[in-house]
Amino acid sequence: MPSYEYARPALTTDCVVFGLDEEDLKVLLIKRGLTPFKGKWALPGGFVREGEDLEKSARRELQEETGLKDIFLEQLYTFGHPKRDPREHVVTVAYYALVNLSEHPPTADTDADEAAWFPFDDLPKLAFDHSEILASARERLRSKLRYSPIGFELLPEKFTLTQLQSLYERILDEQLDKRNFRKKLLKLEILEETDEIEQDVAHRAARLYRFDRKAYLEKQEAGLNLEI
Amino acid sequence: MPSYEYARPALTTDCVVFGLDEEDLKVLLIKRGLTPFKGKWALPGGFVREGEDLEKSARRELQEETGLKDIFLEQLYTFGHPKRDPREHVVTVAYYALVNLSEHPPTADTDADEAAWFPFDDLPKLAFDHSEILASARERLRSKLRYSPIGFELLPEKFTLTQLQSLYERILDEQLDKRNFRKKLLKLEILEETDEIEQDVAHRAARLYRFDRKAYLEKQEAGLNLEI
DNA sequence: ACAAAAGTGTTGATCATACACCCATGA
DNA sequence: TCATGGGTGTATGATCAACACTTTTGT
């Protein structure tokens, strides 16, 4: 059955970009310059080109629309309800990405459209089924964080244990015990203690740690359980 | 940016159907009747039609090619490498399905092609990148089984605890302790004890249990951890 | 009576949780 | 010297892993 017997749905990629600052878990949205949903906020994304790899497409669109590149990106789910785009049947392969907000300030570069960070808990109405995609990405982030050290992607290279705990608390949406949290994370032996401390704080400065990717990969290979 | 500015990749769905019998974890394959890979074994699947929902498409192809319907089916991952199909760029949304083999005998109905069950550990060379899709489905099955009671989909409605344990052992590929396994599963309270026992065995007959879907959903709602 | 699998409890080790105070620093 | 968050240990209960024998049934 050759493909040209039937009309094809169109194919896009969309990307849920998460960032974290002192206040919130944030999401990067772009303001649409074109119909449909012109002027509405939406996920960055666009049509996949013939011959283009899906992840490459997601990364290309992300860079064109928000300036972001070389960031953590993982496939989320493919959404294909025939009516999700009012024009025609458009299937979208959704990705989610994590960035360190301190290196990607509140308003990113933009190619054509306006881009801005929104608190996840205070989002505008979104175009298409993008709210659904966002909810699904939020759920994935939560569950993935429980068994995989992806949180580091949201932090600067060097961070304090309190920053890390706060990240877990805000993403998992539950309070954690300080002592137990530290014990557990240090026991994993995937954090490297640096000899630096945080700067410019009006109290005792905390030690800075760094994620030890190599140690993590070795432990993962060895089949160790790295749940938090 | 309207979709017709660029040529579109084609879109298919493919389905990895797992079954379990006394011997093996098995996979349902079809023999391709058309080029490319004519005569080679492949996953059941085919082109998504304009206006057709993805999951519906996967189910339709599955029924057309293997006769299977109304089975557990879940989206796996979307594979889109531009060269995965030698003809042109074809993106496939892969699903995986679980069936109770005792109700779907070794050779299924077929629409156009030949369909047959193969032991997962002794597969023929497959068309396209279907080996990769299969490996990915196997991994998903393993990890999903650890925290979700999907194993019941592979068993008859009523089953013994030994059957269930054997299922876990074969999918997780590790030996489990009989007493601990029983304790753990019974404590979850998602198994309903029937008043029947297995028939025609040359030894003491085991009690039959049934998966209590309602109890499971309630516990899941309540946020209980149902890891094995 | 024998072969085959069913069924059943206890113990020790490990892990998770709960919890409160002193310390270092800058203002 | 005060305010702020940094950093630390222990005790209790819960959970997990290891382990072997008796029971039931069919042949």
Features:
3-stranded antiparallel sheet, Arc Repressor Mutant, subunit A, 7-stranded mixed sheet, 26% strand, homodimer, 228 residues, 10 strands, alpha+beta, 2 domains, DNA-binding
Strand percentage of chain A lies at 25-35%
**What is the total number of structural domains of chain A?**
2
CATH domain topology of the largest domain in chain A: Nucleoside Triphosphate Pyrophosphohydrolase
Described by strand count, sense and barrel closure, the largest sheet of chain A is: 7 strands, mixed
Radius of gyration of chain A: 20 Å
Q: Which shape of chain A, going by the Cα principal axes?
A: elongated
Of all chain pairs, the largest interface belongs to: A-B, 31 and 31 residues
**Oligomeric description of these chains:** homodimer
Number of strands of chain A: 10
Provide a count of the helices of chain A.
5
The CATH architecture term of the largest domain in chain A is: Alpha-Beta Complex
Helix content of chain A: 25-40%
Terminal CA distance of chain A: 48 Å
Low-pLDDT ranges of chain A: none
Pfam family, one (chains A, B): WHD_NrtR
Protein name (chains A, B): NUDIX hydrolase
Keywords (chains A, B): Hydrolase
InterPro entries (chains A, B): Nudix_hydrolase, NUDIX_hydrolase-like_dom_sf, NUDIX_hydrolase_dom, WH-like_DNA-bd_sf, WH_DNA-bd_sf, WHD_NrtR
Task: Explain what the structure shows.
Two copies of one chain form a homodimer. Chain A is 28% helix and 26% strand. The first copy, chain A, has five helices and ten strands. Chain A has helices at residues 54-66, 130-147, 161-172, 178-188, 213-221, and strands spanning 10-20, 25-31, 41-42, 45-47, 72-79, 90-98, 114-119, 158-159, 191-197, 207-211. In chain A, strands 1, 2, 3, 4, 5, 6 and 7 form a seven-stranded mixed β-sheet that branches. In chain A, a hairpin with a 4-residue loop joins β1 (10-20) and β2 (25-31). The mean pLDDT of chain A is 93. Chains A and B meet through β1, β5 and β6 of A and β1, β5 and β6 of B. The first copy, chain A, binds a DNA duplex (27 and 27 nucleotides) through α4.
